[in-house]
Amino acid sequence: MKRAKAVVALLMASAMLLGMTGCGSSDGNAVNTGTSAGDSAQADGSDVSGTASSSDLNIMLETPVESLDPQLATDGTSFEVIADYTDGLMQMDADGQAVEAVAERYEVSEDGLTYTFHIREDAVWSNGTPVTAADFVFAWQRAVDPAVASEYAYMLSDIGQIKNAAEIIAGEKDKSELGVTALDDSTLQVELNVPVSYFLSLMYFPTFYPVNEAFFNSCADTFATSPETTLSNGAFLLDAYEPAATTFHLTKNEDYYNADNVKLAGLNYQVIQDSQQALMSYQTGALDTTLVNGEQVDQVKDDPEFKTIGAGYLWYVSPNIAAVPELANLNVRLAFTMAINREAITGDVLKDGSLPTYTAVPMQFAAGPDGSDYSADQSRYSDVCAYDAAKAAEYWNAGLAELGIAELTLDMVVDADDAPQKVAQVLKEQWETTLPGLTVNLVVEPKKQRVEDMQNGNFQLGLTRWGPDYADPMTYLGMWITDNSNNYGLWSNAEYDAIIDECTTGDLCTDAKGRWARLYDAEKLVMDDAVIFPLYTQCNAEMLSSKVTGIEFHPVALNRVYKNAVKTE
Amino acid sequence: MPENRTKVFYFCAVFSIKMNEGDTSVAKYTLKRVITALFTLLAILLVLFILMQLMPGSPFNDEKLNEDQRAALYTKYGLDQPVTVQFIKYVGNMFRGDLGVSYNISKNTPISQLIQTRLPISISIGFYAVLIGAVLGLLLGLIAALKHNTIWDSLATVISVIGVSVPSYVFALALSYNFGFKLGWFPMLFSPNDIFKSSVLPSISLSMFTMASIARFTRSEMLEVLGSDYMLLAESKGISGFALIFRHALRNALIPIITVLAPLIVDLMTGSLVVEKIFAIPGVGSLLVNAIQSNDYNVVISLSFIYSAMYIIIMLVVDILYGIIDPRIRLAGKGGD
Fold it and tell me: Looking at residue A41, what is its pLDDT?
């Protein structure tokens, strides 16, 4: 009896604790809706297990998707997922060349100013409506609409040179005046201000993907935030997704015009921010591919499934030429860049396959008229860039003498992320060892703050990076023209500006070979003047299951393309 | 969950019966606390809003943005208007249940939608952790107190010292490696397909601190109560065994324990950043950190506000519970008059 009472008393005590937490929840409104949403999430979850099959590809992501709205998305993860279920006019082949996708063919006018795309008849949205030229017109007008404020609007104006795009973005013209017209349901005509040699390669960039107007309007403000508010015209269909989800799923789209060639049953994405957990999950077979960080490379580098894949990013140090008198001295800048041992950075610190880089345009993303990599020759500017401690010291002493100083202390702003901090630490050591009298203080900031400081000119040295937006060296060289917002050091050179102008809007637009040669002239000016100190072309270290073949990796626009991938059991 | 709800209803029913017993002082006391809580929340919102304005940087400083684009984004989200206008609009929208949209961690997504799916996950894992921690902690503390100065007492002390001093992510990594990777008993990563099973490891990792704190408090409070005069009186009246311990000793020892537990509950239910990261849990902890890092003002304000609201609600419940458990607290004010 006494024991029974005791049990009751214990239960009461726990019930009190339970009641307390329970009541706390039932009082809060948000929590209440939350509980029911939790139940439905569970229901969604069982849906996922229903569609997931053994031949789903299990993919690890480092960061969640920021947006599935093709005109608002700006990050590589979002682009990759949008492209899983959306096709643009063109797509990338395995080598990164633009080939037809929704457009079955196209014509370019002789002057290079008018593109006419013919849309294939069997291209349909997943709600059954055909993909039409009007879908592209609607999407592109959204991209330049100031009310939408698309961050990648400049892909249509500055980069794509579509007629009236710049004026619409600036609010001077109405979006209906954009130089893109649906001649009929299957014919899209695009007018450009000047010939753009890489225009076709822009067509696989998600900002240019179509959006069905009627469907968009039916979603009100929730477009592209759930499977119900996305439409697919691509290889896969989104069937489980929530904004900023850590897991989501796509399944093969049977209505895709090229469905016969899609071998995977679906794509299963898992966001994992902890790299050790990611690698262990890969080792248990839960993932088919995962990223590996520099510290883990030693652990897995002999595994045949270990791969390094070019990511296109150029990492470099930007000296503030305009605001720091010492850095305005060319000898000082040359001393800095020649004192950097880039091999040591990539080989001893990063260890992820990143390539030491001695050019202002990184390697392996832009192929020229003859098909070769623009930056294949890394010795082109070695006289002003390659590691040479003795020469660096010579330049340094000459610089200090010109400035009339014996010592110099500079701050370098660095992102608060792992890799940049390590790289910055090594740079500091290399500089301080090779250049006597130099002290470099590292200022570690969150990336957003670091970018803002550099854009405002509030820095002395800055470690930064740039990813290519399109497969042309101009995505890098365009930055160093006078007053470009990414020309952080405010370098200005009239000759350089003239060359870039000549290559973007001038006579060289239609002369691919001549343009290519002139771009090297421009790059030489940047390198000779040590406008930036290039460090390395970023590579990602990955594990890729030997059961999987056919994933296409690209440094530009779409980093990973899965529609041709095959997974064997 | 339904089980939990029954308990809530049970509790609320007991509570309302108590209130209807003609004891208006509980009602008055409660009303006073609720009004204070509402004003506190409004004040918190104002402070949060001012803090956001003072935070360095802007939500839109991606390196690919130029001045015009940034201006367009400011206009789009109304950030170009005076701060007072922004605040009044924000409060107005909030009363309509509109928390605004995310600027960059999930572009243009209504925050209510973002939180809706994540908060329940953090809350349920936190709830399991509190449950495991509180029950085990109470038991451990009771054993330690009742078997004072024995090997059991020392063992309980060692366990609590470990629980308090070892951070939850160490437990998380150890559990994940051994029970997830090596033995494969539980999933290493959170999976919406199997919420219960994948909550086990994170809940246990998070419960250790609570368990240890509760055990320590229960032990010391029980020891104090057990040595008090009224316990001697109760014992001399012939009450003995479990009744003595649970009705007289534990009830008196609970008050300080509940005080300790309340902030722990909020802590656990609002999600742990590191444990969420390790187990890839789509909770609110990681959301807040991402939002702070990318200056996503609306998300930061909304989440901080929800945290504050939860904290205040739980404190409110605790205050009311005090009144029920120990009438001296609610009557103390009266006595002073």
Answer: 35
Question: Which of A348, A32, A398, A149 minimizes the C-alpha distance to B115?
Answer: A32
Q: Are B206 and B126 in contact (CB under 8 A)?
A: yes
CA distance A242 to chain B (A): 8
Per-residue pLDDT reduced to its tens digit, B11-37: 444 444 444 444 567 677 778 888 888
Contact at CB, B73 and A149, closer than 8 angstroms:
yes
- Give A-chain residues touching B246 at CB under 8 angstroms: 5-6, 9-10, 13
| pLDDT band at A500; cut points 50, 70, 90 | very high
| H or E element that contains A45 | helix A29-51
- Strand A180-184 and strand A187-191: the pairing is antiparallel
Distance separating the N- and C-terminal Cα atoms of chain B: 45
Q: Which two tokens stand for residue B69?
A: 């684009």
Question: How far, in Å, CA of B168 to CA of B210, rounded?
Answer: 10
Tokens of A320: 């503030």
B10-25 b/e (C-beta count within 10 Å ≥ 16 → b): ebeeebeeebeeeeee
Contact with chain B for residue A25, Cβ under 8 A: yes
Helix (H) or strand (E) holding A538: strand A533-544
A509-545 burial: b if 16+ Cβ within 10 Å, else e: bebeeebbebbbebbbbbbebbbbbbbbbbbbbbbbb
Residue A460 phi/psi, 5° resolution?
-110, -55
Higher local confidence (pLDDT), A349 or A47: A349
Q: Does the CB of B299 have a partner CB in chain A at under 8 Å?
A: no
Task: Output the pLDDT for position B106.
Answer: 85
Residue type present at position A323: A
Q: What is the pLDDT of residue A25?
A: 30
Q: Using one digit for the tens of pLDDT, what is the confidence trace for A247-261?
A: 999 999 999 999 999
Contact B68 A245 (CB under 8 A): no
Q: Which residues contact A519 (CB under 8 A, 6 or more apart)?
A: A374, A473, A474, A477, A499, A503
**What is the pLDDT, as a whole number, of residue A416?**
85
Facing residues of A266 across strands?
Answer: A56, A251
Residue A283 touches chain B, beta carbons under 8 Å: yes
Q: How far is A106 from chain B (nearest CA, A)?
A: 30
CB of B141 within 8 A of CB of B222? Answer: yes
What part of B 76-95 touches A (C-beta under 8 Å)? 76
pLDDT score recorded for residue B327: 64
Which residues are within 8 A (CB) of A320 and not within 5 positions of it... i.e. 6 or more apart? Answer: A327, A457, A459, A460, A461, A462, A488, A489, A490
Side-chain-side CA neighbours of A333 within 13 Å: the count stands at: 26
Do the strands A438-445 and A247-252 form a parallel or antiparallel pair, or are they unpaired? unpaired
**Beta-bridge partner residues of A118:** A105, A187
DSSP string, A157-194: TTTT-BTTHHHHHTTSS-GGGSSEEEEETTEEEEEBSS
Question: Best residue in A1, A2, A10, A17 to probe B by mutation, most B CBs within 10 Å?
Answer: A17
Chain A CB contacts of B112 under 8 Å are 30
